[in-house]
Write a structure and sequence with these properties.
The complex is a heterodimer of chains A (258) and B (267).
Chain A lengths: L1 H10 L2 H28 L8 H22 L5 H7 L2 H6 L4 H7 L7 H17 L6 H28 L7 H15 L8 H10 L7 H7 L16 H22 L6
Helix pairs in contact in A: 2-3, 2-7, 3-7, 3-8, 3-9, 8-9, 8-11, 8-12
Chain B lengths: L1 H15 L2 H28 L8 H17 L8 H10 L2 H6 L4 H31 L8 H27 L1 H4 L3 H14 L11 H9 L7 H7 L5 H37 L2
The chains are: A mainly alpha (258), B mainly alpha (267).
Chain lengths: 258, 267
């Protein structure tokens, strides 16, 4: 409902909305231009072809875009805690998380999803994969679970804002940074870093593990092969952790009283 | 002059208040520096000497970029949203009544902000990068000094660009569209995503001539000693200086035009 309100308010200026949607698409597309420029200079990156890197980029880009579309507004919550305007939300008879997530709901963020899907389709056209039913099913699962994992990280980051209001940028390094990381093949990164995103912040389950299975490549960092199918389980665990942190955050919330 | 020095000091102190935000920013810059470093290593592994940079140069470039993001406002100047908001709400009328020049006021405040960001968010990520990777370090104090001059000029060009962007709000009221386009330009043409000398052909030549090149590419090349001799260095400074003057002048003209308009409409 709150999201609907923001959509209506955006739609009041249709041409402005169209412009921001296009720029949002372009902003994210420049990310991909960098990969295009890189492949203008080299044939492969860490042993991965252009189509394979585009596949990794497209899958994480779509998942991240979906998470950003629904949960991206959580970033600005630190400001609401600081200036006390979060209190308004607490008085309304709707779950706080839903309200904060829909706060200033920006439909233009759909540009990011569109860009991710665009690159993904491009990659699928170029890719030379022996598709099996399992691999076909793995693709939508990867996109949905990836979005849920990214979303859980965003909620976890927002929960921390109840205590440290200024630290919103730390979450960015896991969300935006994770998105950049997952767009490249795991072979180019230090093994400790790869292990970190498997076992500590399980971003590898967003796309690396299932995508490498689809591409017919071995899983990184000595992870067993079945881990490619573990994304739903990881997503559920992430949500549980994020939910617990969120509730703890609300309980500890003291209004600024200003 | 004393007044503007005080404003600059205020800008420094104001940003120094947000210690947690600075720490969070340092963390983010470091994480992005790590990720970018590995992608550059993969790229330079395949193509050594790409764009005239050795692997060590390329890695230094990554961390210079992370250090300068906030100093030279690569992804936003850090003041324009506040200024646009003041223009949108009409608070700007009060600012215009004050016996100070609007542009010089914001310039001074931004100078203080840049100085703080250089110490707060520039030094630590660069030091971490130097610990994790072997990258090119300037050969002596003279090179560091030349680098700092280029950074200062870059931050002035950055201010001039973002001020001009903010001025557009006088006519458009909602600055979001222009802000996004400027953001896009800065991100891509400053060379933050990929060094401009790696850009191919005409695109590369164009990118190196645009004002955004003064914000990261030129300071980085000064740091890496790509300008041989005093004359080449002076040429680089002149490039930055010219853009600073042109954009500063444009900002001033826009301000003058806007002020006349505000007077006519009564704010």
């Amino acid at each position: 409902m709150v999201a609907g309100m923001w959509i209506r308010s955006t739609m009041a200026y249709r041409s402005s909305f169209a412009l921001t949607l296009v720029t949002s698409f372009c902003v994210t597309f420049f990310d991909f231009v960098v990969i295009l420029l890189m492949f203008g200079q080299v044939k492969g990156l860490g042993g991965f072809s252009f189509a394979e890197v585009a596949f990794l980029y497209g899958t994480t880009g779509t998942s991240f875009g979906l998470a950003d579309l629904t949960m991206g507004s959580l970033q600005r919550m630190g400001k609401r805690v600081r200036d006390g305007s979060l209190d308004t939300f607490l008085m309304r008879p709707a779950p706080l998380l839903a309200q904060v997530a829909a706060d200033k709901f920006a439909l233009r963020r759909f540009g990011r999803v569109a860009q991710g899907l665009f690159v993904l389709v491009w990659a699928l056209v170029l890719l030379d994969v022996a598709w099996t039913p399992v691999k076909v099913l793995l693709l939508p699962m990867m996109l949905v679970c990836g979005a849920v994992i990214f979303g859980a990280v965003m909620v976890l980051g927002a929960s921390a804002l109840f205590w440290v209001q200024d630290a919103a940028e730390v979450t960015s390094s896991f969300t935006y940074g994770g998105n950049t990381l997952l767009g490249y093949p795991p072979t180019i990164f230090a093994q400790e870093l790869v292990r970190g995103v498997v076992y500590v912040v399980p971003l590898a389950f967003v796309n690396w593990l299932p995508a490498l299975y689809v591409l017919g490549r071995p899983a990184p960092a000595g992870v067993p092969g079945w881990a490619a199918f573990a994304s739903p389980l990881v997503a559920v665990v992430c949500c549980a952790v994020a939910g617990t942190a969120w509730r703890a955050g609300i309980r500890s919330y003291r209004s600024t009283g200003s | 002059m004393r007044l503007y020095a005080t404003v600059a000091a205020g800008g420094f102190r104001r940003h120094a208040t947000y210690r947690v935000a600075t720490a969070a920013g340092v963390f983010t810059n470091t994480v992005f520096g790590l990720i970018l470093s590995y992608t550059y290593i993969a790229l330079w592994d395949e193509r050594p000497q790409l764009g005239g940079y050795s692997m060590d140069d390329a890695l230094a470039y990554v961390w210079i970029g992370q250090a300068l993001i906030t100093v030279c406002g690569l992804m936003g100047g850090g003041f324009e949203e506040e200024l646009i908001e003041r223009i949108r709400t009409g608070d700007i009328a009060v600012d215009l009544y004050r016996p100070v020049d609007l542009q010089t006021w914001w310039f001074s405040a931004n100078l203080g902000r840049s100085a703080y960001q250089l110490l707060g968010r520039g030094v630590v990520p660069m030091a971490v990068g130097a610990l994790v990777f072997d990258f090119t370090l300037p050969s002596g104090p003279g090179r560091w000094l030349a680098f700092l001059v280029a950074v200062a000029l870059g931050s002035i060009v950055s201010f001039a660009i973002w001020y001009l962007v903010a001025m557009s709000a006088f006519w458009l009221l909602d600055g979001q569209g222009v802000l996004q386009v400027a953001w896009l330009g800065g991100l891509f043409f400053s060379g933050m995503l990929l060094p401009l000398n790696v850009f191919p052909g005409a695109l590369g030549e164009l990118a190196r001539m645009l004002p955004w090149a003064s914000m990261l590419q030129v300071p980085a090349d000064v740091y890496l000693g790509k300008y041989a001799g005093g004359w080449e260095l002076a040429g680089a400074y002149a490039f930055q200086g010219c853009w600073a003057l042109v954009l500063f002048g444009a900002g001033r003209a826009a301000q003058a035009a806007a002020t006349r308009k505000v007077v006519v409409q009564g704010g």
